[in-house]
């Protein structure tokens, strides 16, 4: 049974390759769909590995190689073929950022990997930026968004998503679908279920909104912790020092 998770990983890799081929032929819609297919296979290979108890170092390395193609090379090539080809070398550099920073993100994850279960990710997981780009081109590019707004989003995605991948912002891992997980992490599980319902009900359009919401959670959490540490924490330390001084004076 050990080969089954790797089979899903290979299918993930193949879909990434098909995305590049579709984009090279100018079919951005099909290229974006293949990224979503890659995302499904990437999700299933982890589920199958846990279910069969066949997680391995080989599987982790193969998964990273597949992810680099499907969620690094493919979305970068979509950005280039759909928009940045108009800007020559500058456009090539911007379009390549998701691929380059995706490779850095995967290398950092593998270098710091101790076990196969993580409570959170450091930086946005590599599939999220790719799915964000794919869902944007499927449902919003020059369609629900005006050309001017679409151009703004493209620049924001090309620059912001790579930086978030290598950031230290903390992002929750996807909870396992089980009653135990629902009891231990009810809020996280309910949000995932509601997100799936949203995506299905909107026929996929809600996927882009979900990606933006997920990306914002890490930024919000880090901002909250920063404010708490530097403002409220400082006030708390000041209160402690005042208390110590009062104790010292009263003892004298």
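Sequence proposed for the structure above (252 residues):
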């Amino acid at each position: 049974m050990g080969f089954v998770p790797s089979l899903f990983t290979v299918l993930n890799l193949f879909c990434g390759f098909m995305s590049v081929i579709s984009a090279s032929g100018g079919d951005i819609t099909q290229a974006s769909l293949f990224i979503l297919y890659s995302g499904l296979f990437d999700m299933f290979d982890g589920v199958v590995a846990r279910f069969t108890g066949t997680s391995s170092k080989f599987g982790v390395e193969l998964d990273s190689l597949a992810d680099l193609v499907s969620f690094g090379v493919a979305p970068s090539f979509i950005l280039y073929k759909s928009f940045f080809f108009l800007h020559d070398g500058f456009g090539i550099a911007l379009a390549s950022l998701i691929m380059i920073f995706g490779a850095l993100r995967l290398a950092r994850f593998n270098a710091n990997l101790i076990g196969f279960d993580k409570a959170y990710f450091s930086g946005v997981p590599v599939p999220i930026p790719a799915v964000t780009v794919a869902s944007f081109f499927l449902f919003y590019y020059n369609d629900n968004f005006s050309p001017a707004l679409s151009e703004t989003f493209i620049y924001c995605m090309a620059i912001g998503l790579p930086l978030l991948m290598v950031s230290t912002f903390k992002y929750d891992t996807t909870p396992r679908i089980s009653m135990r997980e629902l009891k231990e992490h009810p809020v996280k599980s309910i949000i995932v279920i509601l997100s799936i319902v949203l995506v299905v009900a909107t026929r996929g359009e809600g996927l882009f909104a979900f990606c933006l919401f997920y990306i914002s959670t890490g930024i919000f959490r880090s901002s909250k912790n920063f404010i708490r540490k530097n403002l409220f924490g400082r006030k708390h330390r000041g209160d402690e020092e005042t208390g110590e001084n009062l104790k010292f004076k009263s003892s004298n």
